[in-house]
Design goal:
The protein is of the alpha/beta class. The chain folds into two domains: 266 residues, Aminopeptidase, CATH 3.40.630; 114 residues, Alpha-Beta Plaits (2-Layer Sandwich). It is 34% helix and 24% strand. The protein is built from ten helices and 16 strands. Strands 1-2-4-3-5-16-6-15 form an eight-stranded mixed β-sheet. A four-stranded antiparallel β-sheet has the order 10-12-8-13, covered by helices on one side. Helix 4 crosses helix 10 and helix 6 runs antiparallel to helix 7. The two termini are 24 Å apart.
Length: 400
């Protein structure tokens, strides 16, 4: 086999993928059955290291969990990143390889991400044995994407991106059919923070709210008015969104509680607006709470900025996808309000993230972070083909 055609074009990846595709499906199912939370991905890391070493590669473990591996000769040409952690969610798929760990599941598709990048490593290693790659591809299996501000910061702090000139990633998308991918230039995800507001009062009887601090009313007012304040103080085009996911106070209908909290997320499509929105939210919470006389404990965890896809790296992904899957395989994807710590990497080096279709054509559209999320496993092969082709184009020095 040859790794290049006579015209210098990138070789089709499918012929190299075929011998390991069945194994990759089994590998993914093993990861799916044994999910691990952020910074607890020890078994996952061990499985990846074991398989990479079997392929004759020399993977290097990260300081806690996770691993990276270099393939090829010569200077680093590109980095590829996959996240490997799972979520604290009860799986409801009913699959024979459902999670064996109670309350933990791969409901965001990170088992697919890790398997795709393992497949890329195996394909590139096989190619390199036949005809040495005149450049190095670094594949990073990153821990703790689901824990803000994210394990990507550890990758950067450990110097794993040093000398990496560009970086690519992919993310499962249950709204896109298998065999298609979604791309866009510019921000593809939003900024995301976690906010928790705790209120403390003296408590009292509901017949005499004027003699104490009406804590439940204060919580309700914050829940409604703080998002309204931000909608009038921040440019609406930045799409600042505060959504509460938890609110709790009290245990009896005729007793005003002395303690309660609400928590949620602040999201924003624009990085600059994210900075000002965070400061404004903290101020708005305290101002809205002030008339009720409650004590306020505010925990505002700054999360991640938007993932900003550079034009060149987006073009690289699109060219690879069209070459492997056909011209109709690439679609424009809308910007997501979800947060993604790959954003830190795209701030460090030029990069892009691709949406990988996981919906069975004509089948049900599952959502991410849901216990019944069941991606079509055919997505694995398509993901390997696109990401390996993109890496090869970078190694060969093709513009796109």
């Amino acid at each position: 086999m040859e790794t290049t055609r006579s015209d210098g074009a990138v070789p089709p990846v499918g012929v190299w993928l075929a011998p390991v595709l069945g194994e990759l499906t089994r590998f993914r199912r093993d990861l799916h059955e044994h999910p691990e939370l952020s910074y607890e991905e020890h078994r996952t890391t061990d499985r990846l290291v074991e398989r990479l070493e079997q392929a004759g590669l020399m993977p290097k473990r990260l300081e806690n969990t996770g691993v990276y591996v270099d393939i090829g000769d010569g200077p680093l040409r590109i980095g590829l990143r996959a996240d490997i952690d799972a979520l604290p969610i009860i799986e409801e798929t009913g699959l024979p390889y459902s999670s064996a760990t109670t309350g933990v599941a791969h409901s965001c598709g990170h088992d697919i991400h890790a398997t795709v990048m393992l497949g890329v490593a195996l394909v590139l290693a096989s190619m390199h044995e036949e005809v040495p790659l005149a450049g190095t591809v670094r594949i990073i299996f990153q821990p703790a994407e689901e824990m803000m501000p994210g394990g990507a910061l550890d990758i950067i702090a450990q110097g794993i991106l040093h000398d990496v000139p560009r970086i690519l990633a992919l993310h499962c998308d249950p709204r896109i059919d298998v065999g298609q991918v979604g791309t866009r230039i510019g921000a593809i995800t939003s900024a995301s923070d976690t906010v928790r507001v705790e209120l403390i009062g003296r408590g009292g009887h509901t017949s005499r709210p004027h003699l104490t601090e009406d804590l439940v009313f204060a919580l309700a007012t914050i829940a409604v008015n703080v998002p309204a304040v931000l909608s009038r103080r921040i440019d609406v085009r930045s799409a600042v969104s505060v959504v509460w996911g938890q609110i709790h106070a009290g245990s009896a209908p005729n007793a005003i509680p002395a303690h309660g909290f609400l928590s949620g997320t602040l999201r924003c499509l624009d990085g600059e607006a994210w900075e000002s929105a965070g400061e404004l939210l903290d101020s708005a919470v305290r101002q809205v709470a002030a008339p009720f006389g409650v004590d306020v404990k505010l925990e505002h965890i700054r999360g991640v900025p938007p993932v900003v896809n550079s034009e060149a790296e987006t073009g690289l992904l699109e060219a690879a996808a069209r070459a492997e899957l056909g011209d109709d395989a690439v679609m424009l994807t809308p910007q997501s309000m979800g947060g993604e710590d790959f954003a830190w990497m795209t701030q460090a080096v030029p990069g892009a993230m691709m949406r990988l279709g996981t919906r069975t054509p004509g089948g049900e559209t599952f959502d991410l972070h849901r216990g019944d999320y069941a991606p079509d496993e055919l997505a694995i092969g398509y993901g390997v083909r696109v990401m390996a082709a993109a890496a090869l184009r970078a190694v060969l020095g093709l513009r796109h």
